[in-house]
Design the sequence.
């Protein structure tokens, strides 16, 4: 029995077409696979930013949004968000709100390693403090949402490539993240609902 983390491979419209070990899919020919991004907010509307641990394969030491990850095969995406927020940031949450159900990006690191993900985006609100896992997170900080969006969209704030693409789309939902209306789960790609093609 293998304990290696598996990721869900998807086709261009979001159907699951197989799985592969996570360690095998981040290279110069990275296939499109299922992931998620989440933005954690506190009661003051500040967003939690994290700096990726320096030993990570992709974008080590880069500041990004609160938490990213991959669902396990057959795992609904909102369950994966909750699981990873607990593991990476010590946060216990009841649910995650879907915001961008079909976000997709492809980014290339200077060394040629590619990220290529179908990556729905979620909003999470918390009351308890974050307790980062040093295996995943090098640093963290809270920032007012407007200060963050202004910094990202002006190019003055260095941030991960997926976050740089997500922020303008989230900003279009409104200036106050607490007022954003969640998207229906039905808008998720089939693979993100834990369903396979066929």
Sequence:
């Amino acid at each position: 029995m293998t304990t290696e983390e598996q990721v869900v491979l998807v086709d261009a419209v979001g159907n699951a077409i197989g799985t592969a070990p996570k360690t095998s899919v981040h290279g110069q020919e990275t296939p499109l696979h299922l992931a998620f991004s989440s933005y954690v907010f506190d009661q003051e509307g500040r967003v939690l930013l994290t700096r990726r641990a320096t030993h990570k394969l992709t974008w080590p030491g880069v500041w990004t949004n609160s938490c990213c990850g991959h669902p396990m095969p057959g795992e609904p995406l909102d369950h994966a968000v909750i699981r990873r927020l607990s593991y990476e940031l010590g946060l216990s949450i009841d649910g995650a709100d879907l915001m961008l159900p079909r976000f997709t990006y492809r980014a290339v690191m200077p060394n040629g390693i590619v990220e290529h993900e179908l990556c729905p985006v979620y909003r999470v609100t918390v009351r308890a403090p974050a307790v980062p896992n040093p295996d995943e997170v090098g640093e963290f900080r809270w920032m007012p949402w407007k200060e963050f969006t202004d910094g990202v969209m002006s190019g003055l704030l260095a941030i991960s490539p997926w976050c740089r693409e997500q922020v303008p789309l989230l900003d279009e939902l409104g200036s106050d993240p607490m007022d954003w209306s969640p998207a229906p789960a039905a808008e998720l790609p089939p693979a993100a609902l834990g369903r396979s093609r066929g």
The first helix runs from residue 77 to 89. The first strand starts at residue 6 and ends at 10. The helical segments are 77-89, 145-154, 161-171.
